[in-house]
Amino acid sequence: MREKINKLREEFNSSILSIKDEKGYESIYFRFLGRKGEIAGLFKKMPEVPQEERASVGSVINEFKKFCEGKLEEAHRNLLREKKEPGKKTCLDVTLPGTLPSLGRRHPITQMVSEIERIFSMMGFTVAHGPEIETDYYNFEALNIPADHPARDEQDSFYLTSSYLLRTHTSPGQIRVMKKTKPPLRVIIPGRCFRRDAVDASHLHTFYQVEGLMVDKEVTFSHLKGILEVFAREIFGPQAAMRFRPDYFPFTEPSAEISISCFPCRGRGCRTCSNTGWLEIGGAGMVHPSVFKVVGYNYEDFSGFAFGLGIDRLIMNRYGINDIRILYENDLRFLRQF
Ligand code: PHE
């Protein structure tokens, strides 16, 4: 049976090449696919095939039938085209526009990081990066947060060993930069941070921050305010307002919590800002003398400010997104909108 099929396949392949007109097409069609044709004949002989081979032989015949149908259809199409446009052998039109490859785009977080880098570099800041796996020393100790300090509770962490953890903020970058650089300096340190937070619409175990640090002679809180206001206006437009309220961080003194006027509702109150008109985007303050001591700076001669902003929060404010998780789900229907 299989031999017979192979022989028929060869015959079919050579006869299909000889088709020149409608008549030739029809005769081959009926010979192979007609009601009394070769393939029907094969099916009729099925009862002669031993039981255990029947299924596999059956599928070989079916596959052959499909093959013949496809080839004949193609031959027929060629005949019709030849009739319409005699002499034209090919249907490839090289003047048609090609198929565009689908282009990717940058993730909204990456876009925001680039924009932040652009704005701060205009104001003389350089960009530095720290490691995502930090030591307890850089993440806490050097920032004036000793082992028993209650400020650690707020930053419940992913520890890898007792002295290594995923950084809970970008502030350890301050220490790393200051240990390597002599003042004066202006630097931002963007990066991914991790905390063992319960996940909800505004908290995720993974998020982005940008740290800012400026140290010079006679740097004051006004410089901090001025620079952050320029930043806010660049990102959110001239009507953007900033709010500083007293706060506490062990590595700055005095410290402030920074909020920005809610962009989607222009501060009138909406779901994004829980009707307050304000969105908390980070913390800031004047660098604490004990931090300067750790890095070997003379705090009599120098002063500085530091801030840490939540990049996800900035994105959420700008686009009126009220669930942080959507930034990390890689849903193309969302990402294509940026
Ligand atoms: N690192 C702080 C946080 O993540 C924010 C901060 C940075 C505060 C710099 C003051 C100065 O909560």
Element layout with pairings:
Elements: H1 2-17, H2 22-33, H3 38-44, H4 51-84, H5 108-122, E1 126-127, E2 133-135, H6 136-139, E3 164-166, H7 172-180, E4 185-194, E5 206-216, H8 221-236, E6 242-249, E7 252-261, E8 278-287, H9 289-295, E9 303-310, H10 311-319, H11 332-335
Parallel strand pairs: 1-4
Antiparallel strand pairs: 2-3, 4-5, 5-9, 6-7, 7-8, 8-9
The structure holds phenylalanine (PHE).
Bound molecules: phenylalanine
The tally of strands reads 9
Q: Supply the number of structural domains.
A: 2
User: How large a portion of the residues is in β-strands, by DSSP E?
Assistant: 15-25%
- Poorly predicted parts: none
Briefly note the CATH topology name of the largest domain: BirA Bifunctional Protein, domain 2
Structural class: alpha+beta
* Name of the CATH homologous superfamily of the largest domain: Bira Bifunctional Protein, Domain 2
Count every helix, treating DSSP H or I runs of 4 or more residues as helices.
11
Q: How do the strands of the widest beta sheet line up side by side?
A: 1-4-5-9-8-7-6
- Largest beta-sheet characterization: 7 strands, mixed
Give the C-level CATH assignment of the largest domain.
Alpha Beta
Distance between the termini: 61 Å
The portion of residues assigned to helices is: 25-40%
- State Rg: 36 Å
Mean pLDDT: 92
The CATH architecture of the largest domain would be 2-Layer Sandwich
